[in-house]
Design a protein that fits this description.
Elements: E1 3-14, E2 17-28, E3 32-36, H1 43-50, E4 58-63, E5 66-67, E6 76-79, H2 91-101, H3 106-119, H4 135-147, E7 153-157, H5 165-180, E8 184-188, H6 192-198, E9 201-206, E10 209-215, H7 216-223, E11 226-231, H8 236-240, E12 245-251, E13 254-259, H9 265-270, E14 280-285, H10 288-296, H11 301-304
Parallel strand pairs: 3-8, 3-9, 6-7, 7-8
Antiparallel strand pairs: 1-2, 1-4, 4-5, 9-10, 11-13, 11-14, 12-13
The structure holds adenosine-5'-triphosphate.
Family: Belongs to the ABC transporter superfamily.
GO molecular function: ATP binding; ATP hydrolysis activity
Organism: Planococcus salinus
Length: about 300
Amino acid sequence: METMLTVEGLGKSFKNKRIISNISFEVKKGEIMALLGPNGAGKSTTIRNIMGIMYPDEGTITFHNSAGKEIPRDKIGYLPEERGLYKNVKVMDILLYLAELKDYPLARAKERALEYLKKFGLEGKEKVSVEELSKGMGQKVQFIASILHEPELLILDEPFSGLDPVSQELFKDEIRALAQNGTAILLSSHQMNLVEEMADRLFLIHRGTRVIYGTLGDVKKEYANFKCTINGMNSGTLLESLPEIERVEQNNETAVLYLSRNVQPAIWLKNLPEELDIQELSIDRISLHEIFIDIATDKNLLKEAGELHA
Ligand SMILES: Nc1ncnc2c1ncn2[C@@H]1O[C@H](COP(=O)(O)OP(=O)(O)OP(=O)(O)O)[C@@H](O)[C@H]1O
């Protein structure tokens, strides 16, 4: 797959405080790359450097064959974290104005705008002023503005925040469809379930540096240890004494046992003591959400984290 965006060794400081350092990743044509990290990790700073809203102290950003200030940013679609369009302008006018700024043909922009307004349930709102829209409707218009000019690279900073479940599905479907049609997508989101459903690869940033970079499958294989949920009347002491357990979470008769790394569930199950009361038992890999929490709260994973080959 052709590489659309390359970020190499990116570093940025504000007032002598290091915010991000040595950030390197690629976004390829037709893939959804997720940029993840706890609040304040440096995601928006990374994105703002890509968008030329600020310039890096170190490193290079390349889009196709252009680098730094030469990057044709009108070929990129961007939904910023901070929402808001001009308030007293009509929906269609603002969409056409933004498309025109990117040198996109007006007739085509109008045709696409009508198509997307319909798709997002905003049919008939063309002449409504932006300030009369609800927050979710405004977000839909801003999303349409970011894709109207058919960008080759689309950068979405927290696109799902504040959306109801139906609108989330609409956004998800559209983002997937764009990727299938070849758009390279860089998606920053806190909603791990959505990232797990959508992303091909992910880059996890913590305190301004890389913690994980790889395909979703590789990340899960590498970091998502198994957990075993047992229903039964068992004492905390018995559960804690079981072999190869990292931690136990017990709530009445349900206990979740987080198994150590590289434990083979089939072998582990054979070694459980007979006195363990098992009414129900299930084994799963921990979710991306749990991996994220482990990393954000500096649990054991961080020590072992590194690069996976994407
Ligand atoms: N213009 C600025 N001047 C000084 N510090 C800044 C500036 N912009 C961001 N920061 C700091 O940089 C760090 C990273 O911020 P950034 O917005 O990139 O994080 P984020 O990962 O996008 O967080 P969130 O998930 O909360 O949006 C934070 O500590 C923030 O306070």
